[in-house]
Amino acid sequence: MTIKHIEEYRDADIAKSLVQKIQATSHRKIRLMEVCGTHTVSIFRSGIRSLLPDTISLLSGPGCPVCVTDQKEIDAFIALARIEDVILATFGDLMRVPGTLTSLQKEKAEGCDVRVVYSTMDAVELAQKNPQKQVIFLGVGFETTAPTIAAAIQTAKQTGLANFSVFSAHKVVPPALKALMSMDDVRVDGFILPGHVSVIIGKDAYAAFFKQFKIPCAIAGFEPVDILQAIQHLVSQIETESPQLKNAYGRAVTEQGNVTAQKLLAETFNVQEVVWRGIGIIPKSGLKIKTGLAAFDAEQKFDFDVPVSEDPKGCACGDILTGTKKPFECPLYKTRCTPMNPVGPCMVSTEGTCAAYYRYHQ
What is the dihedral of CA 220, 257, 140, 222, to 10 degrees? Predict the structure, then answer.
């Protein structure tokens, strides 16, 4: 028997013990929200919902970066793609997200130079190899990916790469939690906090939120055992009415987080209010490139018009991102809206709740 097999048996025993503890201690109806889209997918893949008692409902929150990107930002991306002598570089998830009138995928088919890259540095390399073109990278994500975009901007500055810029649509997680708790129709009894984001920002980044709302919180990793451990912590806190901010991902997340990455973010971005799909304007929740780096900011560098933006008619993505609806409660789900023909971004992204439900939910 290999070490891998021993670890699998060990994990199975731990998972069984955690499930037994959850079943034995969960008595009241509770609603737990996993904030991270990767958690949503992991929960479905591992069948965690089927192991939990009926007292526990798991809700998916605004943890998919492509999904919470505002419709006006999607339309801005499309407008940038139409600029002459521009190469638009993006991660693949954005290609099929519907804008108000079209999508990046359709614009590429019409002749716009839109290219899928696998890292921000791929976009920097594109700019180096195409000095006669302007390369714009679409920066979408949370604190996890934002440091890599910051590094690319700083690299471009240091090397004098004048034909590289970024449209920053990055967002910050803790303010979104506060916004959720302030919405009248959102009812959450505990949060499964994102692991990757927390590696960067650290446990302390949630302290002000927890102090204000005193709601049970647990930072979780992505293995089934990690998620079950977080759920067990939350159930225990709720049943004993003793809310805590718990780090259940101690092997990766520290109190302070990645200080080097945080410094890089502070050197590159200002924190500003931005619009989140489904939630609206959230103060201090977006990362915009500093004016001192305007030469690398596509929003400041290019003159482009964005049409009046409209969310897809009938699409419930906004309600799904706040946990007030589940995908099968959307009238378009599995009818007009499918992975092959998505109406809203929640059906497009690999971390989208609708896409996860479509693939895994029975």
Answer: -20
Q: Any idea what DSSP says for residue 190?
A: E
Fold of 66-172+257-301: Rossmann fold (3.40.50)
By the 10 Å C-beta count (0-12 exposed, 13-18 middle, 19+ buried), 3 is classed as exposed
From CA 251, how far away is CA 232, in angstroms rounded?
18
Confidence bin at 12 (pLDDT 50/70/90) = confident
Q: What is the mean pLDDT of residues 275-300?
A: 96
pTM exceeds 0.90, yes or no: yes
Q: H or E stretch including 227?
A: helix 224-239
pLDDT band at 1 (very low <50, low <70, confident <90, very high): very low
CA atoms of 277 and 317, how far apart (whole Å) = 8
Backbone angles phi, psi at 55, to 5 degrees: -70, -20
What does the alpha-carbon distance between residue 73 and residue 75 come to, in Å, rounded to a whole number? 5
Residue 330 identity: C
